[in-house]
Amino acid sequence: DNQAHFRTFQPGAGWSGWASLGGNLTSGPAVNSQDPGVLNVWHRGTDGQLMQRAWTGSAWWADWTGQGGVMIGAPSVLSRQQNMVDVFARGTTRSLFQKHWEGGLGWGEWAHIDPRPLDSSPAAVSDTPGHVMLFARAGGQVVFKDWDSGRGWARGPPGDRSSRRRRHRHRPRRRRTGSPGSSPACAARRRAAACA
User: Fold this and answer.
1) Listing from the earlier edge strand, what are the strands of the sheet with 39-44?
2) Mean pLDDT value across the chain
3) Which of 1, 87, 147, 162 can bridge 132 by disulfide, Cβ–Cβ 3.0-4.6 Å?
4) Does residue 13 carry a pLDDT above 80?
5) 49: helix, coil or strand?
6) CA-CA distance, 118 to 123, in Å (whole number)?
7) What's the distance, CA 120 to chain centroid?
8) CA dihedral sign, ordered 23, 29, 34, 36
9) Which one-letter DSSP state was computed for residue 60?
10) Which of 80, 76, 96, 79 is closest to 149 using CA atoms?
11) In this structure, what DSSP letter does residue 167 have?
12) CA distance 152 to 133
């Protein structure tokens, strides 16, 4: 029926039966919790936008709420620390977008974080509050991108020197300090001219 269904587990009582959350899903669901007692369920709607329905700790939202965007495939959602939510999804060109929520600030706009076309929905994980890792399939390979609070987004595993070289390949050469003509090569030419 394309609706979202869920079941709960209680220690000592075991699993409940399945219950419906409604909706009309066109992707697999994603789930996150940014605060104890709070739960969010996400999916792609029939118009391609991100859909959300939340458990507040005592009740479900009355209905699904659209959060905009036009996605391909399922979203991937995580909370790298309390009161933060990051949603990752492919746009219409299959490239990667991010939408961020923070308690007290609300939602930001969708941000285009990588132009490379992906052949699968992304998978996101965070191992520390200042680090996010993304995995996806592209061209028959697993590709990797990570975010660090100290340097932002980068391709390749953390500490990968080749990825850092690629990022800085086109950095302009630093201009020499000192007066013009003060290099060793210029000094050698002056000495040769003086002996001629």
Assistant:
1) 30-32, 39-44, 50-55, 65-66
2) 84
3) 147
4) yes
5) coil
6) 12
7) 14
8) positive
9) B
10) 80
11) H
12) 12
Name the residue type at position 66. Answer: G
pLDDT at residue 193 tops 70:
no
Count CB atoms within 10 A of the CB of residue 12: 4
Q: Rounded to whole angstroms, how far apart are CA atoms 152 and 91? A: 21
Q: Are 177 and 183 in contact (CB under 8 A)?
A: no
Whether pLDDT at 22 is above 90:
yes
Query: Closest by alpha carbon to 113, among 66, 154, 171?
Result: 154
Query: Which SS3 state, helix, strand or coil, does residue 192 take?
Result: helix
d(CA 183, CA 152): 38
Query: What percent of the residues of the chain are helix, what percent strand, and what percent coil, each to the nearest 5?
Result: 10, 40, 50
Distance of CA 135 to the CA centre of its chain: 9
